[in-house]
């Protein structure tokens, strides 16, 4: 029987059915009724294992609702981190799942994982698959929102398709400043870790991958893949 994988992030939910480590159709939901949305996915099919990775703590009542609709529930949030291996428990569940997937895909290789979401996280694995540390900075849209919120004159702009090398208006200055700044960060990390396998994931992964000349792997569903692997290990 298939497993159901759910990643509840800071702003949205992503879910997918999986047969082993092979992902099926991906679902996305953004709203206040995330548990109800998860339950809607299992109305006709009962998963063998449901893995729920959540940036938000799951209440005991919601946990009970989830347990009733699957044979086995694997919950990973700030309270439930007993499955962590070779990684510190301060890592968020999605970052841990990404690490699990990178270990599986690139065994015996050093890796650096860039996750472009609400935050931009950069995590490192050594050749033995051990977590070597990581950094967190504001994500692309978070930077745009912060400039608008904490200044009196700067406009709120969306992620531009193209940017100027140097801004020639208030809007283009914000666009160029934010995107160029992130690009400089990425290039700095790559310059210091040129032997690492480079993985881009998250909502803005493709956007920045198009602007990088280095050899990289874009795996947009890296977190869900990691959850699929954890589901298989849980069954075993």
Structure commentary:
The radius of gyration is 19 Å and the shape is globular. The strands form 2 sheets. Strands 3-2-1-4-5 form a 5-stranded mixed sheet, sandwiched between helices. The chain has helices at 34-40, 60-68, 93-105, 140-149, 170-192, 205-209, 222-235; strands spanning 3-8, 13-19, 22-29, 49-54, 72-76, 111-116, 119-125, 131-138, 197-201, 217-218. With 236 residues, the chain is of the alpha/beta class. The chain has 2 domains: 3-96, 2-Layer Sandwich (Nucleotidyltransferase, domain 5), CATH 3.30.420; 107-223, Nucleotidyltransferase, domain 5, CATH 3.30.420. The protein has 7 helices and 10 strands.
Distance linking N and C termini:
14 Å
**CATH homologous superfamily caption of the largest domain:** ATPase, nucleotide binding domain
At the first level of CATH, the class of the largest domain is: Alpha Beta
- Helix-residue proportion: 25-40%
Overall structural domain count: 2
Question: What is the alpha-carbon Rg in Å?
Answer: 19 Å
Largest sheet, spatial ordering of strands: 3-2-1-4-5
CATH 2nd-level architecture of the largest domain = 2-Layer Sandwich
Portion in strands = 25-35%
């Amino acid at each position: 029987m298939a497993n159901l994988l759910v990643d509840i992030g800071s702003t949205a939910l992503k879910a997918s059915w999986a047969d082993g480590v092979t992902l099926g159709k991906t679902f996305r939901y953004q709203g206040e009724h995330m548990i109800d949305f998860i339950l809607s996915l299992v109305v006709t099919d009962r998963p063998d294992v449901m893995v729920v990775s959540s940036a938000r703590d799951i209440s005991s009542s919601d946990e009970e609702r989830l347990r009733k609709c699957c044979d086995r529930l694997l919950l990973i949030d700030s309270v439930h981190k007993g499955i962590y291996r070779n990684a510190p428990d301060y890592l968020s569940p999605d970052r841990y799942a990404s690490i699990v997937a990178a270990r599986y895909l690139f065994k015996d290789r050093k890796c650096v994982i860039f996750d472009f979401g609400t935050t931009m996280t950069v995590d490192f694995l050594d050749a033995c698959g051990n977590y070597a540390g990581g950094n967190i900075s504001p994500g692309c849209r978070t930077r745009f929102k912060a400039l608008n919120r904490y200044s009196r004159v700067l406009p709120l702009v969306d992620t531009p398709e193209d940017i100027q090398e140097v801004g020639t208006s208030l809007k283009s200055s914000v666009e160029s400043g934010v995107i160029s700044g992130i690009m400089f960060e990425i290039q700095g990390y790559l310059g210091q870790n040129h032997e690492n396998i480079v993985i881009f994931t998250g909502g803005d992964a493709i956007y920045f991958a198009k602007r990088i000349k280095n050899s990289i792997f874009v795996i947009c569903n890296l977190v869900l893949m990691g959850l699929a692997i954890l589901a298989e290990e849980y069954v075993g």
